[in-house]
Amino acid sequence: MPKLAISPTFLSEFSRLENAIQAAALTAVQAYMSGDRDRLEAVADTPGPGIGLLRIGPEWSGVVAPATGPGDTRCLVAVRPRDEAIAYARGLRPAGGPEIELVGGGRPPAPPAGAPKVTGPAALADALAGSFDDWRTTLHPDQRRFTDAHFTGSAQVTGGPGTGTTAVALHRAAYLAARDAAAFPDLDRRAILLTTRGRLSARTLSGLLDRLLPDADVRARVEVATVDSLARGVVCEHTGTVPEAISGDALGERWREAAWSEGLPYSGRFLADEWEQVILAQSIATCPDYIRCERSGRVLHLAPEHRTQVWETIQRYTAAMRVSGEWSYPQIAAESARILARTGPRYRHVVVDEAHDLHPAQWRLLRAIVAEGPDDLFIAGDPDRRVGDHRVSLASLGINVRGRSHRLRTVYRVSQEILHWAAPLLGRPAGEGVGTPDGRGSLLNGPEPAVRGCVSRDEERRALGDQVRAWLEAGVAPSSIAVAGRNQWVVRGLAKELTARGIPTAPLDADDGIRAVRLGTMHRLKGQEYRCVAVAGLSEPLLPPKAAIDSSEGDPVALEQVYQQERNLLYVACTRARDTLYVSFVGTPSRLLPHIDPVT
C-alpha cells in the first residue's frame, strides 16, 4: 500500500488554505493511500526522478517527492494551484528524506530569528501545548488562593509583567459570579462589576469571561465596563445629558492659552498637572485648602502667594469649561462619585484590573459604587505598567487593604528572555521585585528578543514583513501576532508592507474570530497578550515623540514625566509577548533603549 509522508514545512502552509481546498486535499491523500495510484501525475523536466503531482481537483495539485521510508513512500511538500505546483515541482530535487533541498544546493532559507517556541514546567505543559485562546484564561495553580478567597474587606494583588494580575482579576470575577448565583438564585441583576481603564481591555475581559462562564445566568451577573464609561453613565442618569470629555491634546492647548493670557511664569503643562495631580486628586475646593495642601510628587516648589495666583487662574479656566459644557475625565469621575454618595452603591462586589492607571477621582467613584464590607473591592495592577502619572494612597480614599495586600511573584506569562531584555527600559536590573522560588525571573523560557537596526524605513518594513511571515510559517495563528508602532504614521507604513505581502491585518480591537495579524499603536497594547509581538519605529526622534517633548514647554519636571511615561509605555508594549519579541529601529535608536547600539 502506498505511503505518504509530510514535509515539516507543509502544515503551516496547509493551515492557511481555504477550508474547501483543505477538504479536497485530505480526500485526495486518503484516496492515494487507499491505492488510487491514478491520482499521481508525472511532471516533465524535473531535476530528479519521482517528483510529481497529486491531483486534488481541476485547479489544485499537491507536490510530492520521493522520501525515505518503507515501500512506496513519498513526501507531500506543498499544495498549490496547478501551474504554480508544476513550477514548484521543477524547482525541487530529492534530498534522500522527507525534507527537500532547493535546486542550486542548500535547504530553504531559515526564517528570521525568533521562531516561537516556549517551554515551561510540567504544571503548565498542557496549557502551553493548547491553543493560545485557552492560554489567555489559564491561571497558575498557586494563584487560586487569591481568586477563591473570602476577604473581610477590600483586597489587593500586585505583580510585575507576566505574573498574571489580569488572569487573577478575571478568575476572581468568575468566582464571585458563581458564588453570587448560588447565594441569590432568584436575583438576576448584575451584582459584580469588572472594570478596567481602556475600552479595548474591557472588551478583551468580556470575551474571556464569556469563555470562563458558559452558564448564561452566572455570566449575566457580571458587568464589564471601563471606569470612564461608568462615570459618564452615572452623570447622564442624574442630569439627562451625556458629559462631553475633551481630549488630552485639546486640554493641554487650553491650559497653554490660560498660562499665556494670565502672564504666569509656568507652562501650560504645569498648570494642567497641578490641576489634575493636586487639586482634583485631593478634591480641594477652596483656596485656603490649596495653600495648606501637601503637593507630594510635585518637584517645583510653590510659595503661598504663588499658589493663590495659580488657584485663581485654574478657577477661572475651569469655570469657563463648565459654561462651555466641557469636561475632563477626572472631572466626570469626581462628579459621579458625588452623585453616588447621595444615591448609594450599585454593586455587591467590584473587581478592578489595570488599577495602576486610575486617577484618585476614579477611585472615589469605585469606593462609592460598592458598599463597604466583605469582598467589596478586589484590586489588581502593576505600578511598573503605569502609563499615566497617578500615584494613589488607597487608604486616603477610604479603601483599606492593610493585611489583605499580596504581591504575585511567580512569572509565567512572559518568557525569562523577554523579561530580562525589557527590564533596563525602566532603569533597573531584570526581575527586580519579581522572582520564582529558584531565583529565576520567569517559569517560561523562549528565544532571545530579536533587535534589528536598519538604515532606512523601507528596510525596516521589509525586515518586519519577513519576521511576521516567519511566525506564520512556524504555525502561529495570525490573531496571536501583534505589530505596533509609536504613532499612526508608523503603523500605516507597516500595514502597507504586510498587505503587499498578502498578510491580512486587523485592528488590535478586532473580533477574536478574525484570522489576521493585529496591528495598532503601542498604547493599544495595554492589557493585551499575544504569542508574538513586533514593535517598530523605536528611533530618535519618534520615541519619545517630538510633540510630547514640546508639550513640556521647557519645564524640566514635565519633561522628566514625559520620559518616564514613554519608558513605561515601551515596557508595557514589549512585555505583551509571551513567546517572542521583535523590535526594530532606523539609524539612531531611541534614547529609551540604553542597551542598544546605533546602526553604523
Automatic annotation (TrEMBL):
Gene3D superfamilies: P-loop containing nucleotide triphosphate hydrolases
SUPFAM superfamilies: P-loop containing nucleoside triphosphate hydrolases (SSF52540)
Keywords: ATP-binding, Helicase, Hydrolase, Isomerase, Nucleotide-binding
Binding site for ATP: G159, G160, P161, G162, T163, G164, T165, T166
Major enzyme class: isomerase
Substrates-to-products reaction catalysed: Couples ATP hydrolysis with the unwinding of duplex DNA by translocating in the 3'-5' direction; ATP + H2O = ADP + phosphate + H(+)
Residues of the UvrD-like helicase ATP-binding domain: 138-421
EC number, as in UniProt: 5.6.2.4
Species this protein is from: Nocardiopsis mangrovi
Protein name: DNA 3'-5' helicase
